[in-house]
Model the fold of this input.
Amino acid sequence: MKVVLVSHSAAIGGAELVLLELAKGLTGRGITIDVILPGPGNLGQRLEGVGARTWSLPYDWWVSATWSFAAARRRAYQNVAGVRSILSLLKRLAPDVVVTNTLTIPAAAVAAKILKIPHVWYLHELGEKDHGLKFDLGSPLSVRLIDWLSARIIVNSHAVFDEFSKSLPTRKVRVVYCAADVSSPLDGISCMPDRPFRLVLVGNMTPSKGQEEAIRAVGLLRERGHDITLALVGHCSRQNLRRLRELAVCVGAEEVVDFVDFTEDREQYFIESHVALMCSRWEAFGRVTVEAMKFGLPVIGTNSGGTRELIRDGWNGLLYPSGAPAELAERIDRLYVDRALRTRLGTNGRAWALETFSITRHIDKVMGVLVEIVPAARRVEMKS
Done:
């Protein structure tokens, strides 16, 4: 069986890590994997390392955080050229299925439709609600196109399913959790010494990800005399970094907040921390929440979106209302003073995450979707 995966980026990020795990798992099942990327980047090297072939073609997004007619028209022209390029490649590769790994790019879906190749749209985001991205063609028309261009639609959480089920036929939509694989979820991970108490928040440093709430909460706890530090790990623009540093100074936390650029090697930050934070206003899934759990960390997260789906309050973590740093500080304080609670939440979360989020389970679910849409002759090939 031949599957073409399509990415919106050639750099490593959350959705790209899912694509990498997907390519690794499918090649392990004997499926031929080709991946189309919008340019060169470290993702291509990683994909080739797991046995996938990569192709670099020009195409663009059909969403933007700052919409303008001129920019939308430019993206449309780029996507017309992208459809032509992808059409040519798909004719050569003759895949059985094309999978677009994000809602942000339409070109591969259009090309697959023209060639009558089954297309699967794998949605890891909602767009506007979680990332502030608006469709160039408007949401109603774009969602109808997602439906029309897809044989099946995979979503990465029940939270995303609930949102899209308002406008997509549920018979087409399948919920598939990703693996959120980590290289070394060590047994018997021990927390760092009791002091200083360390928090970690992993995610791009944008207003929607809640780093400001975390800094304000640390400031409140420092006022109470708590010896506490915070590591913020993720990409950050100069403007946002300056804003967050100024906030840390204002709340008296400038000496205990570390800003770390995005790194794939997040394991060390989890191992060195006592508690992980997920402060996003609305997270479609929350890969880093699962990663933190696999390292035995209790997670404090917002009571919204996919985070609410992953954290069972009081069992494997704690929930707090989004936009309420004082409430977040109260949850942190509970874990600061109660080591037994930290241990219990971390142990429960780790056991559940290791069982629920695995490459084997992820690939089984995706294979189940492919079986629904590939020709009968290929089904026999998949089982052999």
